[in-house]
Amino acid sequence: LMLFFTGFSRFSADIQTETGRAIRDKTAELKEMLSLVDEAERVLTSKTELSEFGRMLDHSWRLKRGISAKISTDSIDALYDKAMKAGALGGKLLGAGGGGFLLFFVEPERRAAVREALSDLLYVPFSFETAGTRVIFYEAESYEL
Predict the structure, then answer these.
(1) What is the pLDDT of residues 71-102, one digit of tens each?
(2) Could you read off the pLDDT of 123-132 as tens digits, one per residue?
(3) By CB count within 10 A, which of 119, 134, 135, 138 is most buried?
(4) What pairs with residue 56 in β-bridges?
(5) End-to-end CA gap in the chain
C-alpha cells in the first residue's frame, strides 16, 4: 500500500451532508459495497493473490465516487488516473471525500513508477502495527487563566 497526501482540504461535514442526501437512492451500490467486505476478508485470509485486493479497491472506489458528485473532484480523478496508468491496481480516497489522502495498492515492481507519477504529492510511508495505539510524542500543554 502507498499513501499520498493530495494537498486538497475540504469540510467533510459538507460532503457527508450531500452524501447523506444522495445515498437514499443508492441502495444497490451500498449493498454491493457491503458484499465486498466479505470478499476482501476472503482474499486477505486465503491463498488468493493479493493483487485481487487491489482490483477490489478500484471497484469499491468507483462505487463510492458514484454515490455523490462531491466525493471526488476532477483533480482527484486526474491523480487517481495517473497512479493507475503508472501501475497501481486500485486505490481509494480516504475519509468523506473531496481531498485528504489517496491510498493505492501497488505491486512492488511498480512502486517507483507510481511514486514518480505522483511526485507532486507528499508520499507518506507507513507500516502496520500490532501493539495497538501508543503515544509516540507528548508535550504537556499549559493554560493561563
Answers:
(1) 778 888 999 999 999 999 999 988 655 668 99
(2) 999 888 888 8
(3) 119
(4) none
(5) 46
Name the nearest CA neighbour of 96 among 23, 34, 31: 23
Amino acid sitting at position 125: P
d(CA 89, CA 133): 30
DSSP 128: -
Beta strands in the chain (DSSP E): 2-5, 88-93, 101-106, 122-123
Q: What is the mean pLDDT of residues 113-120?
A: 97
Helices (H) and strands (E) in the chain, counts: 5, 4
Q: What is d(CA 71, CA 63) in angstroms, rounded to the nearest whole number?
A: 11
